[in-house]
RNA sequence: GCCGACGUAGCUCAGGGGUAGAGCGUUUCCUUGGUAAGGAAGAGGUCACGGGUUCAAUUCCCGUCGUUGGCUCCA
């Protein structure tokens, strides 16, 4: 007999060889019907795996993440079989489940697969699914496994198997299909009722751009047709929140082929929005003891050789600008920090004067690979809300925590609650990617982890994600389509102070090396605005939105009164405009709703007589008639409820 | 940079070997309106660009540029 412990702590006794499915059936018929995967003592097992020792069993249904994973992993087998049947001779490589669905990387040889083929693939996959084939795992010796794939001429699988231990190799069979597989399947293919191929993309074998490029076929599947329909509708909704679409509709920014790819042009409304964001941060920064500085857009190549950026990114930068007569070399600045280091060097500092906090909305230029450019989130010219803090070692901890406070204030004020905090540290396997002493790295990494822990941040540690000069704490936010982007960043740097020979005079009358913190709570204005748009669906917070209200005169007769109201709104710092076109009120309202103005103010005879305004809330309908004062209060109240003032922890 | 897709009016898009269409917007006129589209007429396009095939290319083929989904990269 063996003892099976369930998640609720209940212990059941069974004869050795009982399967998770049988345990589920023992608990309830309903669970037995729905169980699609299980884990035993922390390892994923099949629902038909015989359990032969005491242990903890967790049963999963479609509603569990692990259940979905098994479902999608199994679906990738079905996809693979469909591809093999439709395109004989394809070489399969790997096909994991991902966050939303699954993919399979396939070498199609000469054949190319495109959207036109999706229908056929889906049809074939569903046909296979309907066959209700059981997934069956079997152990294979390394020699047999290698022989199997060598015969097929599949070098990819051979390479995978060569890296596995003999005795640790399993194949999974279903229908006529066999794949090298570690396990974790649903009972049979029949559970897959809906199947969709989403897109195809190139992907390098093992993520290495020097190795062959495969075709990655992305798909998603569901146990119910309705789930697929809902998922596709969700994707459609997400597209409506795409910042590229909203930016165009709201007239915030544009791109011009003539100016160049990845170089955003900010339209008047976008520029005004940006300015408000900048002022918002400037105000908080002032309280937090920052001083604004300004530096030029180019710098001598030597500056970046000194900083180490040239050695690391010289080839991947816009190439040097040459002066016509002296042939001096300048670089478009890719970073503000070297400039700020030179600002620090402008005069000697005593420890009594530190920390120095230099802030600048600095525009930088980076040569990003053309395939990487994406709307405002990945561009070649962008403005960082940058600052560099020069402090003593003793001050580092407190300064870092102050910056965390400021970053959280910024994210909180703009409604970003679902960010992910990520501590990026060195890749232990590639130490040569980083500059600076291992000692300093240890200190810096520890300082960040301590500060994040003390601030109660829920963070994950990502090895290999550090900048080449130091570790960092990043705030990651997802876009409409679920892709993660880095917004705010805080980085500890022992390196640049050394390279620029920065010093301060200590209490011991000796020169000491300051520590530097790089930080940008927004990250870049471009990316921040992009994510803010996606996050809000274009319904920006009232304090930020370009126009808070649009005045809609009922007819041309009322234009004059509208102008008068506009004037008194402007006197109360409310941003508004008049729609004086000769259109019906209905049409003006419809268009104002679509243009996402937070408030619509209808003025006609009634209002003019009473000296009031009729207010309509975007998406919320008629609020009735108000005095201008009452409306101004309403706006102020809403702004105050979302926009808190920054409380600095400075003494 | 790599693989795939896409590029038609200001915007959203249809079409297709015989040099172009819709809706919205814009312009003019009529209408002076009360909480999500009042009516009419007009203007607007080297069908991204450059080659090739063809009697004929916006349409088919190749290349370039741009956009896009991924991959790699991201100071």
From TrEMBL:
CDD domains with a match to the protein in the record: TGS_ThrRS, ThrRS_anticodon, ThrRS_core
Keyword flag Thylakoid: no
Predominant cellular place of this UniProt entry's protein: cytoplasm
SMART domains cross-referenced by the UniProt entry: tRNA_SAD
PROSITE patterns linked to this entry: AA_TRNA_LIGASE_II, TGS
Reported cofactor(s): Zn(2+)
Pfam hit, one: tRNA_SAD
Coiled coil (residue ranges): none
Molecular function GO labels: ATP binding; metal ion binding; threonine-tRNA ligase activity; tRNA binding
Keywords assigned by UniProt, alphabetized: Aminoacyl-tRNA synthetase, ATP-binding, Cytoplasm, Ligase, Metal-binding, Nucleotide-binding, Protein biosynthesis, RNA-binding, tRNA-binding, Zinc
Its EC number(s): 6.1.1.3
Domain TGS span(s) in chain numbering: 1-61
Cofactor note (record): Binds 1 zinc ion per subunit.
Subunit structure: Homodimer.
Protein family per UniProt: Belongs to the class-II aminoacyl-tRNA synthetase family.
Protein's recorded name: Threonine--tRNA ligase
Organism of provenance: Robiginitalea myxolifaciens
Taxonomic lineage of the native organism: Bacteria, Pseudomonadati, Bacteroidota, Flavobacteriia, Flavobacteriales
């Amino acid at each position: 007999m063996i003892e099976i412990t369930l998640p609720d702590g209940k212990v059941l006794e069974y004869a050795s060889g009982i399967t998770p499915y049988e345990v589920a059936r023992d608990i309830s018929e309903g669970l037995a019907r729905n169980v699609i995967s299980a884990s035993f003592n922390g390892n994923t097992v099949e629902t038909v795996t015989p359990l032969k020792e005491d242990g903890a069993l967790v049963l999963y249904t479609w509603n569990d993440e692990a259940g979905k994973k098994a479902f999608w992993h199994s679906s990738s087998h079905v996809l693979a079989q469909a591809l093999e049947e439709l395109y004989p001779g394809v070489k399969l490589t790997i096909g994991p489940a991902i966050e939303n669905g699954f993919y399979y990387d396939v070498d199609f040889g000469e054949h190319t697969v495109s959207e036109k083929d999706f229908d056929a693939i889906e049809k074939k996959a569903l046909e296979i699914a309907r066959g209700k084939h059981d997934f069956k795992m079997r152990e294979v010796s390394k020699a047999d496994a290698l022989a199997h794939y060598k015969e097929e001429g599949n070098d990819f699988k051979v390479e995978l198997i060569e890296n596995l231990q003999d005795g640790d190799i399993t194949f999974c069979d279903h229908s006529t299909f066999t794949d090298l597989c570690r396990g974790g399947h649903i009972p049979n293919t029949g559970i897959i009722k809906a199947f969709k191929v989403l897109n195809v993309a190139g992907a390098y074998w093992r993520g290495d751009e020097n190795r062959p490029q495969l075709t990655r076929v992305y798909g998603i599947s569901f146990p119910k047709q309705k789930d697929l329909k809902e998922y596709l509708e969700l994707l459609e909704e997400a597209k409506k929140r795409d910042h590229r679409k909203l930016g165009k509709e709201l007239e915030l920014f544009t791109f011009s082929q003539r100016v160049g790819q990845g170089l955003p042009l900010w339209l008047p409304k976008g520029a005004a929005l940006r300015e408000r964001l900048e002022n918002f941060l400037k105000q908080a920064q002032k309280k937090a003891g920052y001083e604004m500085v300004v530096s030029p857009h180019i710098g001598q190549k030597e500056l970046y050789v000194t900083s180490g950026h040239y050695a690391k990114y010289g080839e991947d930068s816009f190439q040097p600008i040459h002066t016509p007569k002296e042939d001096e070399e300048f670089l478009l600045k890719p970073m503000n920090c070297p400039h700020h280091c030179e600002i620090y060097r402008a005069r000697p500092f005593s420890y009594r004067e530190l920390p120095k906090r230099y802030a600048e909305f600095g525009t930088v230029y980076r040569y990003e690979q053309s395939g990487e450019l994406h709307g405002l989130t990945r561009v070649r010219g962008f403005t960082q809300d940058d600052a560099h803090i020069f402090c003593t070692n003793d001050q580092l901890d407190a300064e870092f925590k102050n910056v965390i406070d400021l970053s959280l204030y910024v994210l909180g004020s703009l409604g970003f609650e679902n960010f992910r905090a990520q501590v990026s540290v060195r890749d232990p396997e590639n130490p040569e990617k980083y500059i600076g002493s291992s000692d300093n790295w240890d200190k810096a990494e520890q300082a960040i982890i301590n500060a994040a822990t003390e601030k109660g941040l829920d963070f994950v540690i990502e090895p290999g994600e550090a900048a080449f000069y130091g570790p960092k704490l990043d705030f990651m936010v997802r876009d409409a389509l679920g892709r993660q982007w880095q917004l705010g960043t805080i980085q500890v740097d022992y390196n640049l102070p050394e390279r620029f020979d920065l010093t301060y005079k200590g209490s011991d009358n000796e020169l000491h090396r300051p520590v530097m913190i790089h930080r940008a709570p927004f990250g870049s204005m471009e990316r921040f605005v992009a994510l803010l748009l996606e996050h809000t669906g274009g319904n920006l917070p009232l304090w930020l939105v370009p126009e808070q209200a649009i005045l809609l005169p009922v007819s041309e007769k009322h234009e004059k009164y509208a102008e008068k109201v506009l004037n008194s709104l402007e006197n109360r710092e409310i941003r508004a405009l008049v729609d004086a076109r000769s259109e019906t009120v209905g049409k003006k309202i419809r268009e104002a709703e679509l243009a996402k103005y937070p408030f619509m103010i209808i003025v006609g005879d009634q209002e003019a007589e009473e000296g009031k305004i009729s207010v309509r809330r975007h998406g919320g309908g008629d609020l009735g008639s108000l005095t201008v004062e009452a409306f101004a209060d309403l706006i102020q109240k809403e702004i105050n409820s979302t926009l808190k003032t920054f409380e600095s922890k400075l003494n």
